[in-house]
């Protein structure tokens, strides 16, 4: 049964992925074209316009991806296909896990495509840029005997990025799950999306302030007069990772609880 | 057989029995004929299969139908069953007619005379 | 077969906020019966059916399917036909049938395909391009092609023409599995009463009567529809 759930989630996302990815490829190829003529003075204005438009479009594609994931959850779990979804003999937690995993995979692919297009736009090609960049970083880390540090750093960045992607998916999920209590499931979801958004904003601002003051309190001043934080960047990363993970788990368990115990499909 | 119409004010299983007795009396269901399955009858009649089952069961108890193990139900092979049903039908129709005439205030002789006249007119109508 | 009753409501209550939809309903349905859940709009019929499906959770009391609380095991044996479209509109009829079969192993794909063909519908047609009547028929077919122990049909004949209605009732009679129970909720009593074994009268969230249809006709000398009008005259 889990396999079938995945099958239909993938089918849905594939129908969106194909146009979006084709769009990214078209963007990438056109940017490559403009990259080749980037030094031509006469075309400067057009090249700049193209760059800014394409950057916006790539950003829009990512936002669109999140909207698609959120709408899929809303539609299939609380509005149109809700009746069928909840009469299938699967546990609510399984349903949530499958949908979340599929949505996350979809977003990872979209973001990878967006980043790829972006890189291609400014460097003319993705693979050689990335390979060269990675090779450079590894060799310099190796030279400074900081290979372990480097690998840890890469791991932290990847982990944090994934957790942030997850938060952007679980946020609308939780909003849908809480808002389903209201008469209009869509209205409730939107309302709670913004309520949660405001809470997160306030919370992260407080966190930022607290973080910065804590770091500055631990600063030391070198002989040259430069202010140097004595806190290891890794520690900072792991603080961020923990906070984002906590937000992820909160959203996840709110959604799960609502699905298991407080379902209200009117 | 036209699709059966049921009066919702009377128990349906009784009406099913009536219809069966009727059809057998008229000869539409000859002795030894196979009765359709409960489900087919239910679909045909547009009624609940349990109701059909009950009706057929009652008819079995009356001896009008017999069930053969594993083979479904059949109209009783006995020709007297049909004769009895026919006789009962005729008698019932007569009783109704007589009752209706009595309500109109006719006595026995007037009833016979009216019936005779009506019959003759009908036959004339056929020949003419 | 574990429990004696396929559906049991024990003091079942459900409120939406302060608005009560069901008040302390007690009901026990046996297997192998076609039961009419009869009541006006807003009487709590749909709420009761959704509670049986696990689409809603009770405010008080219990509802049991085959002795179990609504969950994964009960969903395997319950077939639900809601009062609105539930199959994905963008799918073709064919794909939609396979979709149902993917999640419900007891779905009889061949029976469903045959019924679709007999209706003269092209299985490659998308569901959203069908007329309302045909969409309802397709939904009904997908619900009745399952070999479920309990069928819950919410207002299957509301808003359709008489010919479609006859088709729906006929399809129900033709397809429900032996020894399973069919619950038909409706406010159009006269149209369905002939196929019902038992009837439940419900109004304002309370069950007021639960008897056999023929028994009503025998003892009261009137149709279920007539009795309903009388019971709820005031």
Architecture overview:
The complex is a heterotrimer of chains A (266), B (128) and C (234). Chain A is an all-alpha fold. Chain A contains 8 helices and 2 strands, in the order H-H-H-H-H-H-H-E-E-H. A two-stranded antiparallel ribbon of chain A has the order 1-2. Chain A is globular, with a radius of gyration of 22 Å. Chain B has 5 helices and 2 strands; from the N terminus they run H-H-H-E-E-H-H. The model of chain B has no long low-confidence stretch (mean pLDDT 86). A two-stranded antiparallel sheet of chain B has the order 1-2. Chain B is mainly α and 128 residues long. Chain B starts with 11 loop residues before the first helix and ends with a helix. Chain C has helices at residues 45-53, 72-77, 93-103, 109-118, 132-144, 162-175, 189-192, 213-220, 224-231; strands at residues 7-16, 19-29, 34-38, 60-65, 78-81, 150-154, 181-186, 198-203, 206-212. In chain C, the strands form 2 sheets. In chain C, strands 5-6-7-3-8-9 form a 6-stranded mixed β-sheet, sandwiched between helices. Chain C is an alpha/beta fold and 234 residues long. The N and C termini of chain C lie far apart (42 Å). The chains are: A mainly alpha (266), B mainly alpha (128), C alpha/beta (234). The interface between A and C is medium-sized, with 21 and 24 residues.
Please name the CATH architecture of chain C.
3-Layer(aba) Sandwich
Major sheet description of chain A: 2 strands, antiparallel
Q: How much helix is in the residues of chain A?
A: over 70%
Report the β-strand fraction of chain C as a percent range.
25-35%
Low-confidence stretches of chain A: none
Structural class of chain A: mainly alpha
Average pLDDT number of chain A: 84
Question: What is the 3D shape of chain C?
Answer: globular
Number of helices of chain A: 8
Low-confidence stretches of chain C: none
Oligomer designation: heterotrimer
What is the 3D form of chain A? globular
Radius of gyration of chain A, rounded? 22 Å
Q: Secondary-structure blueprint of this entry?
A:
The complex is a heterotrimer of chains A (266), B (128) and C (234).
Chain A: H1 2-36, H2 44-77, H3 82-87, H4 92-123, H5 127-143, H6 147-179, H7 185-217, E1 219-221, E2 227-229, H8 233-261
Antiparallel strand pairs in A: 1-2
Helix pairs in contact in A: 1-2, 1-4, 2-4, 2-6, 4-6, 5-6, 6-7, 6-8
Chain B: H1 12-26, H2 38-45, H3 49-62, E1 65-68, E2 72-75, H4 79-103, H5 108-127
Antiparallel strand pairs in B: 1-2
Chain C: E1 7-16, E2 19-29, E3 34-38, H1 45-53, E4 60-65, H2 72-77, E5 78-81, H3 93-103, H4 109-118, H5 132-144, E6 150-154, H6 162-175, E7 181-186, H7 189-192, E8 198-203, E9 206-212, H8 213-220, H9 224-231
Parallel strand pairs in C: 3-7, 3-8, 5-6, 6-7
Antiparallel strand pairs in C: 1-2, 1-4, 8-9
């Amino acid at each position: 049964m889990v396999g079938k759930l995945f099958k239909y989630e993938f089918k849905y996302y594939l129908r969106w992925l194909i146009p979006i990815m084709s769009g990214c490829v078209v963007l990438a190829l056109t940017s490559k074209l403009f990259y080749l003529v980037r030094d031509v003075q006469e075309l400067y204005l057009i090249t700049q316009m193209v760059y800014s438009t394409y950057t916006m479009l790539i950003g829009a594609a990512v936002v669109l991806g999140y909207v698609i994931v959120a709408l899929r959850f809303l539609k299939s779990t609380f509005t149109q296909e809700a009746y069928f979804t909840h009469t299938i003999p699967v546990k609510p937690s399984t349903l949530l896990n499958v949908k979340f995993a599929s949505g996350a995979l979809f977003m990872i692919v979209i973001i990878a495509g967006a980043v790829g297009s972006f890189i291609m736009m400014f460097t003319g090609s993705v693979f050689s840029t990335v390979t060269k960049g990675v090779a450079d970083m590894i060799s310099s880390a190796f030279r400074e005997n900081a290979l372990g540090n480097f690998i840890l750093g890469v791991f932290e960045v990847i982990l944090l990025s994934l957790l942030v992607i997850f938060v952007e998916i679980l946020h609308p999920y939780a909003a849908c799950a809480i808002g389903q209590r209201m008469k209009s499931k869509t209205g409730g979801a939107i309302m709670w999306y913004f309520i949660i958004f405001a809470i997160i904003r306030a919370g992260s601002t407080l966190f930022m302030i607290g973080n910065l003051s804590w770091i500055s309190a631990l600063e030391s001043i070198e002989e040259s007069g430069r202010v140097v934080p004595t806190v290891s960047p890794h520690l900072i990363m792991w603080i961020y990772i923990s906070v984002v993970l906590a937000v992820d788990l909160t959203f996840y368990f709110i959604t799960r609880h609502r699905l298991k115990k407080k379902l209200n499909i009117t | 057989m036209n699709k059966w119409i049921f009066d919702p004010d009377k128990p349906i299983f009784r009406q099913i029995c009536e219809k069966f007795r009727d059809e057998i009396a008229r000869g539409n269901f000859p002795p030894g004929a196979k009765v359709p399955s409960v489900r087919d009858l239910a679909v045909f009649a547009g009624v609940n299969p349990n109701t059909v089952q009950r009706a057929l069961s009652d008819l079995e108890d009356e001896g009008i139908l017999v069930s053969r193990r594993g083979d479904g139900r059949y109209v009783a092979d006995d020709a007297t069953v049909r004769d009895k049903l026919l006789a009962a039908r005729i008698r019932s129709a007569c009783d109704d007619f007589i009752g209706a005439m009595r309500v109109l205030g006719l006595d026995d002789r007037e009833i016979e005379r009216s019936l005779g006249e009506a019959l003759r007119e009908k036959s004339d109508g056929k020949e003419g | 077969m574990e429990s004696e009753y396929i559906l049991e409501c024990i003091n079942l209550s459900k409120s939406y906020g302060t608005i009560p939809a069901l008040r302390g309903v007690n009901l026990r349905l046996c297997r192998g019966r076609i039961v009419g859940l009869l009541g006006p709009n807003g009487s709590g019929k749909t709420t009761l059916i959704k509670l049986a499906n696990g689409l809603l959770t009770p405010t008080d009391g219990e509802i049991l399917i085959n002795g179990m609380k609504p969950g994964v095991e009960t969903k395997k044996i319950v077939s639900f036909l809601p009062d609105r479209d539930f199959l994905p509109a963008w799918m073709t009829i064919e794909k939609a049938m396979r979709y149902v079969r993917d999640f419900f192993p007891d779905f009889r794909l061949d029976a469903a395909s045959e019924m679709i063909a007999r209706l003269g519908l092209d299985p490659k047609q998308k569901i959203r391009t069908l007329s309302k009547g045909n969409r309802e028929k397709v939904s009904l077919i997908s619900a009745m092609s399952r070999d479920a122990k309990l069928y819950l049909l919410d207002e299957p004949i509301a808003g359709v023409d008489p010919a479609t209605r006859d088709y729906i009732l006929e399809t129900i009679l033709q397809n429900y599995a032996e020894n399973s129970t069919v619950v038909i909720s409706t406010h159009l009593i006269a149209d369905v009463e002939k196929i019902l074994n038992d009837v439940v009268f419900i109004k304002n969230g309370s069950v007021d009567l639960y008897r056999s249809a023929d028994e009503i006709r025998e003892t009261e000398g009137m149709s279920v529809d007539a009795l309903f009008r009388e019971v709820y005259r005031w």
